[in-house]
Amino acid sequence: MRMKKKSKFNFEMKGGNVASKADKSTQRQAMATKILIVDDEPDFQELISQKFTARIRAQEVEFVFAENGAQALEKLRQDGAIDIVLTDINMPVMDGLALLGELPARHPLIRAVVVSAYGDMQNIRIAMNRGAFDFLIKPVDFEDLEITIKKTLQAVQQLKESLLLQQEKLQLELRNQFIRSIFGRYVSEEVVEILLESPEALQLGGEKRRVTILMSDLRGFTSISERLAPEPVVALLNRYFEAMVDVVLQYGGTINEILGDSMLIIFGAPVWRQDDARRAVACAVAMQLAMAAVNEKNKRDGLPELEMGIGLNTGEVVAGNIGSLKRTKYGIVGRHVNLTSRIESYTVGNQILISESTLKEAGPAVSVSRQIKMEAKGFDEPITLHEVKGIAGEYNLFLPERKDFLVELAKPLAVLCTILEGKHALGASFTANFVKLSARGGEVLSSQPLTLLTSLKMRLSDFEGKEILADIYGKVIANDPMRFQVHFTAMPPEAAEFLQSFLLKG
Fold first, then answer.
1. 30 burial class (0-12, 13-18, 19+ CB within 10 angstroms)?
2. Is the same domain home to 374 and 446?
3. Cβ–Cβ under 8 Å, residues 217 and 309
């Protein structure tokens, strides 16, 4: 209950209106405070309008009137701009105390003040228990009412500001959870922290980015998986990915996709750094070096050894959230993604091929051994590829030299060759002869001209000319007019045993 007292504020009384000099100019610029008066006495409504005439004309305050609690609830439902309710107690249909009981659940941001002649302690206690901000007794002291309105409005504003802060905090937490859920398992903690500190680095609507793309794939894993039970296949993949993911995160790459035995890794999105291309090449070399430890464990557990090919390319892509409302993920699209896939498909096991653009952006620290020209869909000019030997400088990582000693055969070994485009045969098969062999490849005499990096399916014949019913897959890594050198990319055990016996006899 508020008793009549001298105002603590410097108010002027002009025509029954109380106003703060210091606040006048600011209040006129602000939106008018909207107050709902709930009272069934027309005289009280008229008195309010008279006492606040100047404020109303100055658009500092606006009054809305209702004659009972039910009308008040309807007014509140229709008008979301009301800040304060001034309500009497004794009214028809729904009294003021009943109205107070409805407000917290329906309009939690509105504060109510009771203005009533029924100021006994029971009514005051019920009103305050039902959430009334204050209780004024009629006849109203308008200076006291002005102070009460001001304090009530301050309470409403503080409540709204507090709610806004809570909403902003919740949005921040949700954004951080989203970033961690989308990227936390696929990028380094350093990149996650950059995204959390600078969310503008993540344009979920899609944007053009210059990135370096790394694609890796296990050579011959499809045939390996077909020969093994599911458990060892999963064990092989898990061991391989565990090692590779650690390397990728160490070098700051974003693991965009793991599909089967392949990986798509991005350097430059969602966070761009000046050394993206150089780190990508270093990552590729480190991944190849990490395969030695993977294969040691495989050999120890009686599992097949694995070989990986890696292709890298640098170019402009579209990066952003891709998918539908039900399922979405951060990804990249564009012709440079397709080109990277093509480059990777040209690699053999333990090899890294990079485009000219990646070599240029990675800088002179990258050491390459040879270059290869290829035609690529969507590109007018031939694409130049470079085989990576290692990277100097701060990384100082180099691949061991590949030594493949070919044994000259005393007797040629017949082979039926089929050119492959992807997984499909291209043209008719042709016969050729191995004249040199090793466990990893061979030199073939053939009248069929083949370009570098051509993929082949080969079926061998034994000493009596009988076919060995197992296909060997390989890729042309060197060529002359009448001969080519092939590197085996996939070989079933029976073919490997036959070649080994042939080498021993040859």
1. exposed
2. no
3. yes
The answer to whether residues 307 and 247 belong to one domain is yes
Pair (417, 362) in one structural domain: no
Helix, strand, coil distribution of the chain in percent, nearest 5: 35, 30, 30
* Per-residue pLDDT tens digits for 5-63: 333 333 333 333 444 444 444 444 456 889 999 999 988 888 988 889 988 898 888 99
Q: Does the pLDDT value for residue 239 go beyond 60?
A: yes
Q: Is the pLDDT of residue 314 over 90?
A: yes
Q: Are 85 and 111 in contact (CB under 8 A)?
A: yes
16 domain-assigned: yes
Domain-ending residue, one of 362, 380, 398? 398
With CA atoms as reference, report the closest residue to 32 among 67, 57, 66, 65.
Answer: 57
Are both 377 and 418 inside the same structural domain? no
Whether this prediction's pTM lies above 0.70 is answered by no
Q: What are phi and psi of 50, to 5 degrees?
A: -70, -45
Phi and psi torsions of 220, nearest 5°: 70, 15
233 shares its domain with 158:
no
CA distances from residue 45 to 52, 58, 65, 88, 269 in whole angstroms, order as listed: 11, 19, 7, 11, 64
